[in-house]
Amino acid sequence: MSDWKTIIGLEVHAEMLTETKMFSACPVVDSVTADPNSATDPLSLGMPGTLPVINRRAMEYGMMVGLALNCTIPPFNQFARKNYFYPDLPKGYQISQYDHPLAVDGYVDIELEDGTTKRIRVRRAHMEEDTGKLSHVGGGASLVDYNRSGVPLLEIVTEPDINSSAEAEAYARKLRAILQFLGVNHGDMSKGVLRFEANVSVMHKDDAQFRTRTEIKNLNSIRSMVRAIDAEVERQIALYKRGEMVKPATLGWDEDNGRIIIQRYKERPDEYRYFPEPDLPIVEVSRAWVERVRASLPELPDAKRARYVGLGLTPYDARILTMDRPVAEYYEAMLQTGLDAKTAANWVTGDLFRLMNEAKIDREAVNSLPLTAQAFAQLIQLVERGTINAATARKEVLPILWAEGGDPAQIVEARGLAQVSDPDLIGRVLDEVLAADDDAVRSYLSGKEQAANALFGQAMKQLKGKGDPAVVRQLLTEKLQAKRG
Amino acid sequence: MTDYKTIPTPRKEACMSALTDLSLTEALAKLESREVSSLELTQAHLQQIERYDPQVQAYLTVSADLALEQARAADAARARGESAPLLGAPLAIKDVLSTKGIETTCASKILKGYVPVFNATAVQRLLDAGMVMLGKLNMDEFAMGSSTENSGFFLTRNPWNLDYVPGGSSGGSGAAVAARMALGALGSDTGGSIRLPGSFCNLAALKPSYGRVSRYGLIAYGSSLDQTGPMTRTVEDCARILQVIAGHDPLDSTSSKAPVPNYLDAMRQGVQGLRVGLPKQYFGEGLQREVREAVMQAVEELEAMGASVQDVDLPYSDYALAVYYIIATSEASANLARYDGIRFGLRVEKGDMIATYKATRGAGFGDEVKRRIMLGTYALSAGYYDAWYGKAQAVRTLIKRDFERAFEQVDVLAAAVSPTTAFKFGENSADPLQMYLADILTVPANLAGVCGMSVPCGFDDAGLPIGLQLLAPPMREDTLLRAAYAYEQAHDWHARKPALVS
Question: Which residues of B are catalytic, by number?
């Protein structure tokens, strides 16, 4: 494998979360939950005589993404018709951009596993309209749902700067986070609002340039993309090793069987007969407009991450807390209560993520858990103030909050979970424990100091786990020292 | 004006005939004075259609019930004291414009049975102004043609001589208005399709500047060229309809926000001091003798009325037809892609999806439409784009510049509409290139986006009408109307009536 280098370029289609479609006042709906064809209008259906009108909000969303990806916004952009026949494309052409895209020449810095950073260049980002959705229902029949037809779509194209599936994954995650933080796309790939296509080719160490590339389409999760790229790289190298050629092709990915499907070979380059869209004027973009949009940009993941590190978080924690906008929002809502940033981060990345992983809940869904950021923060504050100990919080209170939500202080109160710190009570319990376990005491006195741990455990058990660990530890040490004396 | 009480009651038929002979302007006055009701006027036109349309074949759809309903509503509104610019006036619409609830086919089999759910903006504005809609008019399929012989359903005859074409592509509009089967009609003009039938049928017919009238609901042929406009029997009628349909439409991003002048006021300002230009290139070889004489005569009369006349140069005119047939067909190749049998109109099921596409489009489109789709597809193809579409756009810019320079010197250009008067059926239809030449004097205006108009200026030896073409700068329809009205006032060409309906 080391003789071969992988070259990947990614094309990402991101729907822009506007209220109405790219070129008409037709509402945009959730394409998974809405009834088929319930959000259409004459334009989305390509009815004769309809004309497009540009959605200014969509253009601004696109511009926000362009700016967040460090792109140049040219002084004008222009729509063009991309011509091809398919039942999900009602006009027989897609209004897209060709010679004059909305944004050009940007970049995204990605963090690699080894902690280094790599810059992936973004060639262009252009606005277009989404197509409808075709479902094949068997018996040779297909149904078309035009709800998605005309939804604003931003296509973001990288240079072929990506050299592994891991880099592709890092880029995809970073890009998704940026889109989420901008509020222009919720990043839910299962709903098709964010779609990846990978152009893959390889080159041998003796090659002067990379070889024939293939295009993997319809990758509907980042995991699929990673697996598909790995499989395709392997397939291409295997072909070359057998002395065969890779033919230009459009590929699909069979997630269930983990294999590449060849959808069609491209005998010649695609012929879309692009020409400027005569129904729309050229979009002039004044510098003032760009600056207004730039000023409206929210804090982006890189800036947020740097700020978190400044608050005392490890670079690792800062990164995983800024990978999904909902997580960052949850975390920041916890900080709103005055909680220490580092402590909050530990609980989120430790306990919360563990519970979510076990329950197979996506991190993006963090804000719809019964356990709200406020309740979680209050729970941690109970620990910080010594009202309960960490173990009680983790084992007794957190499971209740996780399952049904509620007020941590009330749960502690109702269940009598408050920490026991009374030295007299703890002293009496310790006396009983020491009297009952002579062996352990002797062992300790003979120098085996870890025997104290067993005694501590027995005392905590007697205290039903509610003992203040610091007080218990301190009194135990004092009593044992007294015996030695 | 005569008090209606003093009008003797003539025999019914004569009365009806008198009603259809009224100009739109006259009819509106009689409606306003209650001398005639919209219902009477509408019934008269429906009877005229019943009587003459079997020969002329201008209408694809006669919406009689709707028209009568609208007429009664107009009369009721007027009785309540309401008024509107066209309240109760029976008009008809070229079938290229989308009409809600009424089949709209563009005279193509591929759209047979398609009933739109929305009105074109121009149609909606006419309805809002009180129009009574008589029906939908025949045309060359998808507005591609100069004779209406390319209709997917049947041809339309010229009321002036039933052996001759009415011109195209708005031939149904031209024939219907000439045969008094509507007080006026909307047509559309991509390369001359309003002016040519206007000229062949002896009408005042105006192609507005690109962007003056909304294209929303105008079924696209060449999107950067198409315009909707009025076809009527007098210049004033034309001005009245234009007044209603002109103006910005938020649904059409190419519609102009320029204010709409008062055309009726502007029209009456006379031609004293008006500078008229004669484009040298428009008076070359191939111009029929009578056409040349009639146009020159008209120009001399304008001069006699106080206009000044000079020659102007439009050096890139020779390329206009070639440029037009690249740009219009390129745009058409995309515009007509939506007729795929999936959502509306004709579907011919065949094997798989691709076979169904082919069968549907093969059966649904006529030869001329297929020819233009192929031309346009070719011109946009990889490797040919720069040499064809790209070059055509560059030359289009030069043609536009020709007009800009000419309009620095003159206010209005005068020429013939077409090198010849109406031709016989079949005379040009065997040779598409010969047919395309009918548009040689009209396409430059579409490429340049300027406004243009045809005004009756005489008849040839065979008794066929001749049109004077006037062209003015973008958004200067007021100038066009001013020149046309002044000329019309001095003549009765426009008042002549085809023998068929006399």
Answer: 94, 169, 193
